[in-house]
Amino acid sequence: EYEGDRNSEGERHGFGKARLPNGDTYEGGYERGLRSGRGTYRFKNGALYTGDYLENKKHGKGVFFYPDGSKYAGDWVHDQRHGYGEYLYANGDTYTGEWAANKRHGQGTYVYKDTGSKYVGAWVNGIQEGPAELIHLNHRFKGRFLNGKPLGRGKFIFDIGCEQHGEYIEPVQEKEEEEEDEPPLPVEPQWKVSEVTKLTPWSPHDEEPAP
């Protein structure tokens, strides 16, 4: 069902309201039969998008309310979260920063609601990777991340005014002959302290990662 403006060819064009066969509804702009311009799309499952459209796709700025209570407000390109935006997750965590193809990608800040800790730094395809700072209540860690875990040189900075330098090392896994079929358990990188100093200006950006 459609009620609204049409052009001389009879295509939906201008402002209109539509109910789709699947029960979703759309109210907003059309150009030559396609959703274009500002509009609000309500999904039968309770989700809602309000923002810019181009040729039937979410494109430009818009806010999407998901059925689980989470919400994204920011840039869209061809129906995907892409550019800059803020995502409020169902558990109360938030991410504010860059996106590419629906994933956290580039520079961004992720705040963990339960602990108040936050990760400020680089992301690759949705995973924490690159130079970053992990900020806790009374101390923070500065270093590099790989696959969501700290790895290599870094330092803990304590609010009392000192720093603990060191590196996160991948532990060597002991191999046992009989258990070859067992998948290896994920191992956490281990922190190895090198020295404790007064506050220093070192940052993970100072050194290039090893090739």
Structure report:
The structure is a single chain. With 211 residues, the chain is mainly β. The chain has two domains: 1-82, Histone H3 K4-specific methyltransferase SET7/9 N-terminal domain, CATH 2.20.110.10; 91-171 and 190-198, Histone H3 K4-specific methyltransferase SET7/9 N-terminal domain. The protein is built from no helices and 16 strands. The chain has strands spanning 2-6, 12-19, 25-31, 34-42, 48-54, 57-65, 71-77, 80-88, 94-100, 103-111, 118-124, 127-135, 139-146, 149-158, 162-169, 190-198. The protein has a 16-stranded antiparallel β-sheet, with no helix packed on it. The N and C termini lie far apart (59 Å). The mean pLDDT is 92.
How would you concisely characterize the structure shown here?
The chain has 211 residues and is mainly β.
Key features?
61% strand; mainly beta; 0% helix; Histone H3 K4-specific methyltransferase SET7/9 N-terminal domain; 16-stranded antiparallel beta sheet; 211 residues
